[in-house]
Prior knowledge:
The protein contains four helices and three strands. By secondary structure, it is an alpha+beta fold. It is flat. The N and C termini lie far apart (about 60 Å). The model has no long low-confidence stretch (mean pLDDT about 75).
Amino acid sequence: xxxTSIKFEVIPGKNQKSEYVLTCxxxxxRGWCKNKRVGKQLAxxxxxxxxxxxxxxxxxxxxxxxxxxxxxxxxxxxxxxxIELQQYAKKNKPNVHILNKLQEEMKKLAQEREETRxxxxxxxxxxxxxxxxxxxxxxx
Length: 140
């Protein structure tokens, strides 16, 4: 998908409206717009609808394609909060705020590791009276 060519054309029309044509690989969409920016936006949405007809809302597309971006933003905010906590440091004393933040992060990491370590256990439940229920019934 990285070498796919994208071509956007604007064909002037009547009444200050233009026809836009967006070609992305083998997919082509057409539509009418008042300006180029709106045309590009509408064309992009139509291409995404062609590529993913099963997706009903734009949030689903963001979850499909934007996962790494969300992780990066969360990491940046946690880094910023640690930097902000450094202002509470006092000379020759431990910084309680940073230590609390470190403890929270270590608990999160331990919980994530515990979840990956858990294995489902198979439990066998025996009925009160074995053989009381038929396995299969056939009407003749």
